[in-house]
Amino acid sequence: MNIFSERVTLKLIDDCDLEAIHSLHARPEVDHFNTLGIPKDIKETEGTIKPWISENRKDSIDNYTFSIELTKTNQFIGLIALTSSGAKKHKKAEVWYKLHPDFWGQGFASEALESILSFGFSKLKLHRIEAGVAVDNLASIRVLEKVKMHQEGRKRKVLPLKSGWSDNYMYAILAEDFNA
């Protein structure tokens, strides 16, 4: 399954994405707000993404993990996921994303996020999509607000980052707000 936008394509990750994902996760700049930490080797990355790939291969997927690729070149530039564990009953999901630093500040994260929100609301018929973001992650906050997600609250000292415990802002968007 692929989701297309003007500049990026979202593709369900597979085994062939291991090296690119490992390279992304191993970058200190990407790790700054990452709760997974930098993997010690590619085997650790493989262990992290194996459940994501298994989920992507199911007939009925609850958690979608996509690579973000440049549409023109198919170059891997990041990851985005929609975790819809409460989708059936509560019609909600959570989104997360990470982008290679070479592609920061160019609108690719916003475009990928807009695409996955559209997928969640139109194809999965979700009512609500949420995201959490470290309070110091100003670039990601701008991405969330650019796609009209609203800050709904703050969780205190919930993210175990390398720099210590961080507060987390909670953002969300409703289908009716996205389609307005």
TrEMBL record:
Residues 8-176 form the N-acetyltransferase domain. Pfam families: Acetyltransf_3 (PF13302). One of its GO terms (molecular function) is acyltransferase activity, transferring groups other than amino-acyl groups. It comes from the Bacteria. The keyword Zinc does not apply. This is GNAT family N-acetyltransferase. It comes from Arcticibacterium luteifluviistationis. SUPFAM superfamilies: Acyl-CoA N-acyltransferases (Nat). PROSITE patterns: GNAT. Keywords: Transferase.
